[in-house]
Amino acid sequence: MGDIEKYGFFPRIRDACITYIFEVRPVQQAIKQQRHIKVKAAANPFDPDWDAYYRDREKLLKLKSVNEFIGKVLRRQNGECPMCRQVLERCQEHFLHHIDGDKANKRIDNVALLHRDCQLRLQQAGKATT
What we know:
By secondary structure, this protein is an alpha+beta fold. It is 35% helix and 18% strand.
């Protein structure tokens, strides 16, 4: 690869007027590396003996796909929904539930990460008791 291919033009926002200054920097600095979790060669998703492996792998993938705060909540819950005890998968929609009902209280011991369906069931159960 020659010197020309090693460099690229990347926009940088200068101020609120959105004027761009193009800077030249190495392409390697502009592209963030993304590491993937490889699947074991012998792993078979249809074999029940490998269920634990795929469950743990899905937990790791979910942790990589969320921000730091949600990651802490997920680690505290061991990657599972506290309502149904199923793994919170990265492709599923999740909901941050505030245990005391105060959405301003975002302490980790006050929030739980739930599946969207579990959150709706919890919400319906709360309406039924009131």
